[in-house]
Amino acid sequence: MIVADRKPVEEIIEQIKDHDNILILGCNECVTVCEAGGKKEVGVLASALRMHAMKAGRDVKIDEVTLERQCDHEYLEEIRDRIDQYDAVVSLACGVGVQFMAEKYHDMPIYPGVNTTFLGATEKRGLWTERCQACGSCILARTGGICPVARCAKRLLNGPCGGSSKGSCEINREVDCAWQLIIDRLKALGKLDEYEEICPIKDWSTDRAGGPRKVVREDVQL
Amino acid sequence: MRLNYPTDIRIVRVPCTGKVDLLHLLRAFEKGADGVYVVGCMEGDCHFNSGNLRARKRVEQAQAILDTIGIGSQRVQMYNLSSGEGPLFAQYATEMHTRILELGPNPIRAGRREAA
Question: Does B51 map to a domain?
Fold first, then answer.
């Protein structure tokens, strides 16, 4: 899932200081799971912003809505009939949702309420870690299901660098060396001979280096 | 044990302090409460294992938010006691009451009057 982290309330207060009718818009998908932008976080942020406004003696209307998703037209359409009552929206969706919202409601100021961080997994409640960089050309079949693009600081494709020490990366002792993990897993799978195969130069044109990407599926388009 | 404690405290009964959510704490302040304290069982004695530990975390989250928006973290507090400690319950009530009297009313009430 897409992992996001809450923005400091002070930053959001600064962003919306000139608005009096504000919609806090949550998203029921990834940001709900990582406890950054779901219905609960919408409620907490709205309550904090209302109290801040009341304390300053300002009469500010702050409403709460949480959509199923903010990255699909049909869910964003659900607020079309009420969006005009507001003069700003704080979207707690990931960067995708914020931008899709901005595209759909062109005249409405949209402010991000979270910092979109990475594609990752929930290791335990309150701990999310990166697993994928969406490079567009998956090599997990060759690397024991552990991604050196996302998890090796140097994105090395043919074994560890000299900075790998006792299973840790040189950038930080707490970061596992991705290649140590890969070798350990290949060993466990009895496929260590695959480690000897040289990985050819990766086609990075499918990564961000090739500019904004798109997936076109004419077979499912109507 | 006819103990006395301040009368301007409103008790909201919950099945376990684990039921108390961050939103409940914030809404209380939003509606004008001057202070909120949560009284749970002793840590390690929760019938539901971690209810009082969850409550403590939520109280800490509320404290951080109240500090950020200038209402003050001292207005929300977690206490722990066992069901046999009536005198301690009264003592915590008095302690919180004294603290709130020192802090004065919830600042959003003054702001609300100003807006009106």
Answer: yes
Helix (H) or strand (E) holding A114: strand A114-124
| A8 lies within 8 A of chain B by CB | yes
pLDDT averaged over every residue in chain A:
96
| A40 touches B: beta carbon within 8 Å | yes
In angstroms, the separation between the Cα of residue A15 and the nearest Cα of chain B is 15
pLDDT at B116: 67
pLDDT value at residue B70: 94
What domain count does chain A have? Answer: 2
For residue A58, the chain B residues in CB contact (below 8 A) are 111, 115
CB contact residues (below 8 A), chain A span 124-153, against chain B: none
What is the spatial distance between Cα B30 and Cα B82, in angstroms, rounded to a whole number?
A: 30
ipTM > 0.95 (yes/no): no
How far is CA A171 from its chain centroid?
A: 23
Kindly report the CATH number assigned to the domain that includes residue A85.
3.40.50.2300
Burial B67-96 (b: 16+ CB within 10 A, else e): eebebbeebbbbbbbeeeeeebbeebbeeb
Answer yes or no: do A55 and B70 touch at CB < 8 A: yes
